[in-house]
Write a structure and sequence with these properties.
This protein is mainly α. 83% of the residues lie in helices and 0% in strands. It has one helix spanning 12-71. The N and C termini lie far apart (97 Å).
Length: 72
């Protein structure tokens, strides 16, 4: 069996230290990605809420204007 040139043999303590740092970095990256995803979802929900509020306000203004016009 032929071994690759990049294959590195480490002592157990060095390997575990590197794995710990790798896992810590991966966890931080995953947290950052989740944070951005939650932010994007929150922004979309906020924009939908604002749009819904404008549509509702528009409807009630139309109803009010129609009633005002009918009362004249």
């Amino acid at each position: 069996m032929q071994m690759g040139r990049t294959k590195v043999f480490l002592r157990r303590s060095a390997f575990e230290a590197l794995e710990h740092l790798r896992n810590k970095t991966l966890a931080a990256a995953a947290t950052k990605i989740q944070s951005f995803a939650r932010m994007a979802i929150a922004q979309m929900r906020y924009e939908i809420s604002i749009y819904a509020a404008v549509v509702i306000q528009n409807f009630f203004r139309q109803v009010g204007a129609h009633r005002l016009f009918q009362a004249q």
